[in-house]
């Protein structure tokens, strides 16, 4: 049995019944054990950092630079440029709208408009003015200017990011500007219908800013036009809400 602070244990010794007491000495952490503990701790820290930086590393591998032309307003739907932006880029956060004006070389009459399909609100920024909102992520924007211009969009896509389609309501609630991302695998509007499991009544519309054409595709039907890299398309889903994780190259 245990005997006080010295942890003594009495052991029986056969038929003689003679007893002896053996003291259990506390084990010391040797330098060898200490080194093993340090190695294990370092390995665990490395694994933690690896997991933390995995998404950032993947995003850096999806970085790109895209030349973008902005067609001028000319009536009849011309000049309504539906533009896609990357998951990460200088357009985000405070100052992001001003950065976008500079990147696309927009003049003082240039505007950036975003619809919030969940709240049903519209935000418009005029270049050169004070920013009153922050560029919303994963939503395309309408870029307009009175003169033709062009610029460069830079950033990176993040594979695994999800897109949310709000249920269609009174405009602009449910009016989703879906970005055709640089590394997306979708080629036709029907590809988006399939990848995002949109309903048969959902529609996808492309606005041709150069010619003023409006092209609409209804899901499950034969696609008659292709998506354009760097553009955003208008998606209306009356059986929402839905969430989509589109595949990337």
SSE map:
Elements: E1 8-13, E2 18-23, H1 31-61, E3 63-70, E4 81-83, H2 96-103, E5 111-116, E6 121-126, E7 141-144, E8 149-156, E9 163-165, E10 175-179, H3 189-195, E11 203-207, E12 214-218, E13 232-236, E14 242-244
Antiparallel strand pairs: 1-2, 3-8, 4-7, 5-6, 5-7, 9-14, 10-13, 11-12, 11-13
List keywords for this structure.
249 residues; alpha+beta; 4-stranded antiparallel β-sheet; 3 helices; disordered N terminus
Characterize the overall form: globular
Spell the H/E element sequence.
EEHEEHEEEEEEHEEEE
- Mean pLDDT over the residues: 83
* Continuous helix count: 3
Largest sheet, spatial ordering of strands: 4-7-5-6
The total tally of domains equals 2
Number of strands: 14
| Largest sheet descriptor | 4 strands, antiparallel
Work out the helicity level. Answer: 10-25%
Please tell me how large the radius of gyration is.
31 Å
Low-confidence segments, ≥5 residues, pLDDT <50? 1-24, 45-60
Structural class: alpha+beta
Span between termini: 69 Å
Verbal overview:
With 249 residues, this protein is of the alpha+beta class. It folds into 2 domains: 4-60, no CATH class; 65-244, no CATH class. 18% of the residues lie in helices and 29% in strands. The protein contains 3 helices and 14 strands. The strands form 5 sheets. The chain has a 4-stranded antiparallel β-sheet, with no helix packed on it. The chain starts with 7 loop residues before the first strand and ends in a 5-residue tail after the last strand.
Outline:
18% of the residues lie in helices and 29% in strands. The chain is of the alpha+beta class and 249 residues long. It folds into 2 domains: 4-60, no CATH class; 65-244, no CATH class.
């Amino acid at each position: 049995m245990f005997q006080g602070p010295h942890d003594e244990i009495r052991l029986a010794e056969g038929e003689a019944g003679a007893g002896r007491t053996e003291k259990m000495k506390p084990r010391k952490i040797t330098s060898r054990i200490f080194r093993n503990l340090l190695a294990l701790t370092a390995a665990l820290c490395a694994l933690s950092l690896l997991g933390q930086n995995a998404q950032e590393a993947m995003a850096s591998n999806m970085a790109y630079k895209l030349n973008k032309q902005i067609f001028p307003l000319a009536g009849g739907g011309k000049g309504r440029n539906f533009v896609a932006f990357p998951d990460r880029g200088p357009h985000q956060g405070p100052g992001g709208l001003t950065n976008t004006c500079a990147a696309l070389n927009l003049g003082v009459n240039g505007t950036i408009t975003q619809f919030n399909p969940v709240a049903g609100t519209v935000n418009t920024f005029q270049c050169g003015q004070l920013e009153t909102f922050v560029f919303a992520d994963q939503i395309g924007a309408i870029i307009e200017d009175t003169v033709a211009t062009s610029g460069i969009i830079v950033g990176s896509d993040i594979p695994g990011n999800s897109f949310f389609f709000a249920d269609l309501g009174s405009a602009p609630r449910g009016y989703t500007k879906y970005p055709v991302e640089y590394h997306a695998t979708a080629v036709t509007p029907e590809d988006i219908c399939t990848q995002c499991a949109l309903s048969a009544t959902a529609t996808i519309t492309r606005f041709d800013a150069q010619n003023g054409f409006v092209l609409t595709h209804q899901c499950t039907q034969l696609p008659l036009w292709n998506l354009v890299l760097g553009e955003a398309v208008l998606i209306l889903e009356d059986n929402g809400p839905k969430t989509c994780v589109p595949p990337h190259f």
